Amino acid sequence: MSSAAVADRWGRKRMLLGYTLVGVASLMLMLTDAAQGIIAIRALLRLSKAMIMPTALLQIRLVFTAFSVIAALTLLAQWLQLVHGASLFTRPACC
Predict the structure, then answer these.
(1) For the chain, what is the mean pLDDT?
(2) Where are the domains of the chain?
(3) For the whole model, what pTM was predicted?
């Protein structure tokens, strides 16, 4: 079942729990040293980001007008690239 289908059943506001999961998982990732823990937390991060994306795209379409939706989606994509690029440097490679 996709996260968009879950959002339809649970509601958009409950799917925003994904933001909390991203924050908690990021903090856990900083404190984990074992490879198995890092892999498990990365899986949790991917799940929580999958919860966020459909809701974020829907919110953009509800808030912005038709012309500014393109600009908002562009800003979202650039922000995600910036966050992903910064995450490569926040934790050194294992050992």
Answers:
(1) 76
(2) 3-90
(3) 0.58
